[in-house]
Amino acid sequence: QVQLVESGGGLVQPGGSLRLSCAASGSIFSINAMAWYRQAPGKQRELVGVIISGGRTNYADSVKGRFTISRDTAKNTVYLQMNSLKPEDTAVYYCNAQIKLIGATDGSDFWGQGTQVTVSS
Predict the structure, then answer these.
(1) Residue 21 above 90 pLDDT?
(2) Biggest alpha carbon–alpha carbon distance for the chain
(3) For 7, left (φ over 0), alpha (ψ -120 to 50), or beta?
(4) pLDDT tens, 26-72?
(5) Does the CA dihedral 58-47-79-24 come out positive or negative?
(6) Long-range interactions of 58-67: CB distance < 8 A, separation 24+
(7) CB-CB contact of 22 with 35 (8 Å)
(8) Burial class (CB in 10 A: 0-12, 13-18, 19+), 100
(9) Are 60 and 37 in contact (CB under 8 A)?
(10) How far is the C-alpha of 14 from the C-alpha of 83, rounded, in Å?
(11) Phi, psi (rounded to 5 degrees) for 89
């Protein structure tokens, strides 16, 4: 059993910043990757960025140079630093992690509850 708990969403003005956090807890053996997705009204859910084992990151073109994913492995936590926010960044942001549970032979996907980010003046 794994739970992903997100925090840090809210309302910000264009050009502002937010830092989202996602902490995984449970019977975790290892975390292969952690990612952030978002879903805006009327749009499909899209991958924002991912950090994989070893610390490599990848980002959607729309957020490159503005968003940064980092992790605290000791806390099983991933962060999304969001700078230079635009109204089009408004969405529900979801944390995702591929986690191998203790005693499991392979990893499984887990999702956070989602946190609303609204960028508006």
Answers:
(1) yes
(2) 49
(3) beta
(4) 999 999 999 999 999 999 999 999 999 889 999 999 999 999 999 99
(5) negative
(6) 62/88, 63/89
(7) no
(8) middle
(9) no
(10) 10
(11) -80, -10
